[in-house]
Prior knowledge:
Layout: H1 3-15, E1 19-21, H2 23-28, E2 33-38, H3 44-57, E3 60-63, H4 68-75, E4 83-87, H5 91-98
Parallel strand pairs: 2-3
Antiparallel strand pairs: 1-4, 2-4
Amino acid sequence: MNEKKLRKVLRESVTNDKIRTGKKEVFQYMKGTNLILTSTSLPDDSLEKVKKLSEESNISLYNFPGNSTLLGRLCGLSYRTSIVSLKNVSEEDVNSILR
């Protein structure tokens, strides 16, 4: 994982309002999503549902190694979040994050 690239993409997504946080919002707005990030705080049943939906919708999934607080901070948010979806992220950015 390229943490600098991940941080840059997350900050740009927050600035451009191309990010959805939280399980309910992510599931509701799957259309147009390019990348989903999950933290270690996401419950197993939700993680399985996300994996299934991402495979069906051909969306890249990245398991962030930190907890929800760290993921929220990385996004520049003032709250914690266990799942984040990003829209309009280039394939090049997605591939560099997943490496």
